[in-house]
Amino acid sequence: MRTLIVLAHPDLAASRNNAALAAAARTEPGVTVHDLYAAYPDLRIDVAHEQRLLRAHDRIVLQFPFYWYSAPPLLKAWMDEVLAYGFAYGSSGTALRGKTLRVATTAGGAEHLYRPGGVNRFPVRDLLLPFDATAHLTGMRYAEPFVVHGVRELTDLELAEAGDRYRAVLRGEEVAAAEFRSTGPVPSATLAE
Ligand SMILES: Cc1cc2nc3c(=O)[nH]c(=O)nc-3n(C[C@H](O)[C@H](O)[C@H](O)COP(=O)(O)O)c2cc1C
């Protein structure tokens, strides 16, 4: 299994969290990290090259910092241009069928803010539904998103643990969504309720 991480961070040099996750991912065998903003500083995407990369990998991970409940703009442009009719969808657009698509994202907001009644109203998983629909339309299996919440408050240890969880997910070991919280272990009293 070959995994392609399409990483979209507009300023990776200033990134703490996505840089750490990408560094962790790079240590996994069979994982290629493709830094979109580094590849296309002029924002002009080489569509044929991107399509070749997608064809050559079985698992596609879209990794990005969560910006305004979505992805940074180069990833949207990448989707618009690379997931073209005749390649990704349409009667002859079968290149992605049978592959797996997963989103990996870091959010400034803590998980409890992403609930009905919370300031962000919806779980990140729900806000990512356009990616789920994209996977469905293109014949890909949509894997559970990997979400790291509350990244501004993460300690170095918690960030390293998030990197370990990311590597486990990339190895194909699904991690329960509840484990993505940055708030530490759930107290046993809560578990007993
Ligand atoms: C333009 C912009 C928009 C953002 N929008 C959100 C948002 O909608 N939800 C959220 O939880 N955090 C939001 N954030 C915080 C980022 O998700 C956070 O800074 C990022 O995940 C940190 O990752 P990094 O260390 O790799 O840069 C936003 C940050 C910026 C700069």
Strand content: 15-25%
Q: Structural class of the helix and strand makeup?
A: alpha/beta
What CATH architecture would you give?
Answer: 3-Layer(aba) Sandwich
CATH C-level class is: Alpha Beta
Oligomer: single chain
Q: Major sheet: size, sense and barrel closure?
A: 6 strands, parallel
Write a concise keyword list for the protein shown above.
193 residues, Rossmann fold, globular, disordered C terminus, binds flavin mononucleotide
Structural account:
With 193 residues, this protein is an alpha/beta fold. It has one domain: 3-Layer(aba) Sandwich (Rossmann fold). 34% of the residues lie in helices and 15% in strands. It is built from 8 helices and 6 strands. It has helices at 17-26, 36-39, 47-55, 73-82, 124-127, 129-137, 156-170, 188-192, and strands at 3-7, 31-35, 59-65, 100-106, 141-142, 146-148. Strands 1, 2, 3, 4, 5 and 6 form a 6-stranded parallel sheet that branches. Helix 4 links the parallel strand 3 and strand 4 (100-106). Helix 1 (17-26) packs across helix 7 (156-170). It starts with a strand and ends with a helix. It binds flavin mononucleotide (FMN).
Annotate the secondary structure layout:
Elements: E1 3-7, H1 17-26, E2 31-35, H2 36-39, H3 47-55, E3 59-65, H4 73-82, E4 100-106, H5 124-127, H6 129-137, E5 141-142, E6 146-148, H7 156-170, H8 188-192
Parallel strand pairs: 1-2, 1-3, 3-4, 4-5, 4-6
Helix pairs in contact: 1-7
The protein binds flavin mononucleotide (FMN).
Short description:
This protein has 193 residues and is α/β, with parallel strands linked by helices. Helices cover 34% and strands 15% of the residues.
